[in-house]
Amino acid sequence: MAPTYDFPGDDLIATQQELDQVRADLTAPYKRLQYSIELMEYWQRPEGYWLATSRAYPVSPAWSEQEQQEVAVSRERERDLTEVLLTHAFWSEVPEPERLDACSRLRHAPEREDGEGQETA
Q: Total structural domains in the chain?
């Protein structure tokens, strides 16, 4: 049977949930914005590359200051939350060989608390 972990819900699980939300929020600007932060002229990848995707890239207008700030704030928050998760005292209580499994279970702990992903009897 796989080990279970008693994650500190008030801070560790809450931090994981907030990190998940920040990452979800970051996908919206990435999908909405152009591929380049700075102004990029039209360019075409030379022949001979193994990628089968389009070789032509349209002009990419630069991101506005507000768009850059929005992404920068979210990325900084993502880094801060990741640091809190990685340096949490809980990890010193988990035997080293089990830490990867515990980390994986933490990522899915919010789903289990909400009842998602659980089998019903």
A: 1
pTM for this one?
0.74
CA pair distance 34, 8, nearest whole angstrom? 40
Q: What is each CA distance from 53 to 19, 34, 49, 50, in whole angstroms?
A: 32, 17, 10, 9
For 32, how many CA atoms within 13 A lie in the half-sphere containing its CB? 11
Do the beta carbons of residue 77 and residue 60 sit within 8 Å? no
Lowest mean pLDDT among 7-11, 27-31, 52-56, 102-106: 52-56
Which of 19-23, 41-45, 62-66 shows the lowest per-residue confidence on average (mean pLDDT)?
41-45
Q: What is the DSSP letter of 57?
A: E
- Tell whether 120 is covered by a domain: no
Residue 92 falls within a domain, yes or no?
yes
CA dihedral 55, 35, 20, 105 (to 10 degrees): 30
Instruction: Give 81-91 pLDDT, tens digit per residue.
Output: 999 999 998 98
